[in-house]
Amino acid sequence: DKDYQLRTLSSDFGFKKVSLSNLLLTLVICVCMVYLATIIATLWNAILMLLGYTQPNGSTDGMTVDILFLELFMTAVLPGFCEEFTHRGLIFYGYRDSGFKAVIVSALLFSLMHQNIRQTGYTFFDGLVIALLFYYTGSIWPGIIVHFINNAYSVLANYFGINTAISNFIEPHPIITIVLGSIFFIVASAGMFFSFWKMRKDAVKNGIIGDRPFAP
């Protein structure tokens, strides 16, 4: 019947419940991803500048609270749901029998969809992380949560001048920045690796995936 078809379609596209442990691991992965993506974005923009790309100037001067909430809705809420449904739902579902190819293709199309060369590097990385979340949990909700937090942080960082404050700290303290950055990079990488390892272990135990990684 129609109710059964709707439930089946909803399940196929990942609208499933997520365990509390996976939600906690998702938050850890999200924090690690945001930091690592920042590093990747910095390196990617440096490469673009070496190739002759000129960064356009952006400004948030005059952003009111009303505009802030509108930005959060348009940049974090809508993309968090719609883009995840498209890339981790439709696209990943379409390539679900292609092994790791589903992760790569969904991440690549997610990156190219933004149509902004400055975002290509870190959005591809984000796409890989979120695709793995979808694969190991069998649910689209962790990706929606991570996507929302990532985009909301970007909006809030610009509004409160966090990016400017970080830049002002980095310029006069390059050595301290490199040391602290390296430590945080190692911690973030280790945190993400451990969280995915634990998530994969639970996924095999609960029958979400098989023992062989990315088997059709």
Written description of the protein model:
The protein is globular and about 60 Å long. The chain has helices spanning 2-12, 20-50, 65-94, 101-113, 120-137, 141-159, 162-170, 174-205. Helices cover 75% and strands 0% of the residues. By secondary structure, it is mainly alpha-helical.
List keywords for this structure.
globular; 0% strand; 216 residues
Tell me the layout of helices and strands:
Elements (H helix, E strand, L loop, with lengths): L1 H11 L7 H31 L14 H30 L6 H13 L6 H18 L3 H19 L2 H9 L3 H32 L11
Radius of gyration: 19 Å
Helix tally equals: 8
Percentage of residues in DSSP E strands: under 5%
Query: How many beta-strand runs?
Result: 0
Oligomerization state: single chain
Give the rounded overall mean pLDDT: 87
Estimated helix fraction: over 70%
